[in-house]
C-alpha cells in the first residue's frame, strides 16, 4: 500500500499550477498538520492497517518545504510502525525554501528521497513560469541535499513552453545532469482552466519533434525512461505503485485515496478540512472504469498490461499492434514501445 500526504501551502503560485495550493494560509500550518494526524488515525482504524504495510510515503503539494520538520514529527512518529523497513520516503521541495536546516530536519525524520521542483535553469523561463527561485538557488539546494545525505534526488523540468529551443533545453539538461540526481521528470506544459496561463494559452508550444528529441537526449545521459514523463538510474517506487494499480491512502485537503476500487476525497478547502478531516466523499469504480485505468497506466509505463485483461477483440487488436512493432509481448504481457502513443494505443484497443 502507498501513502500520499498533501501539503497545500506555497510561497508563490506558479502560472501553470492547478493543484490545491495557497499562498495566503500559512497561519493554518500547525492546525493543518494536526488535522492530518487525526485523519491518519481514522485511516489506521478504518483499514485495520497492519504493521509494516506501507511500501512508500510521498509528501507532495503545494510545497512541503514550507512546513518546518518539527510540524511533521508527530505524523512520522505515528507512521513509523506502519512503514516497511527500507520504505521509500519522498518529499517534494522548492529550491528557495529547502534550506540546509529543513533538509537536515527531514533527513532526521526518515525522508530518504527529495524531489525538487526546478522546472528550468533559464532565468527568463523561470520568470515566465512564475517560479520563485533562481537557477543558482536550484543548484545550491540540490547540492545541499546531497550534503545532507539523501539517498535519492530527483528534479522536475518543464518543456513545451513558448520560446523553448533545443539550445535552451540542452542547457537545462546539461545543468541537471551536472548535479547529483538519479531521477528526472520532464513534463510538457499543459494549460489548466483557472490558472493564469489559461488567459494566454499560446504560452504552451509543445512540438512532437522537440519532445522526441528531448527524450532521446535524456536517455543519452544514461537515464532510462520508465514512464512517459519519468527517467532515471533509479525508479521511484511510489510512482510505479500507482501504475501497478496498488491501493493508496490520501491524507490532506484535496488528496485522493483509492482502496478496493473505491476512490475517496477529503474536503478540498483547507479550513473545511481542518474543521473535519474525517469527512470523505466516495466514488466506486466499476469494472470497466478499473480496466480503462489499468490500460492507460500500464501502457504509459514499464508496467505493461497482462493479456488476460483484454477481451478477444482487444487481444486481436493488440496482436496487430505487436505485428506493427507498436507493442511488445513478453511472458503474457504487452508493453508499449513508444509512450508518446500510449493514449492512442488504448483508444485503438478499446475500439
Describe the fold and architecture.
The chain is an alpha/beta fold and 351 residues long. It has 2 domains: 2-243, TIM Barrel, CATH 3.20.20; 288-351, no CATH class. Helix content is 37%, strand content 22%. The chain is globular.
Summarize the structure.
The chain is α/β, with parallel strands linked by helices and 351 residues long. The protein is built from twelve helices and 15 strands.
Explain the layout of strands and helices.
Elements: E1 2-7, H1 29-46, E2 54-61, H2 69-79, E3 83-93, H3 100-109, E4 113-119, H4 123-129, H5 135-148, E5 152-159, H6 166-177, E6 183-188, H7 208-220, E7 224-227, E8 230-232, H8 237-243, E9 248-251, E10 257-259, E11 262-265, H9 270-275, E12 281-284, H10 287-299, E13 305-306, H11 312-323, E14 327-330, E15 333-336, H12 342-349
Helix pairs in contact: 1-2, 2-3, 3-5, 6-7, 10-12
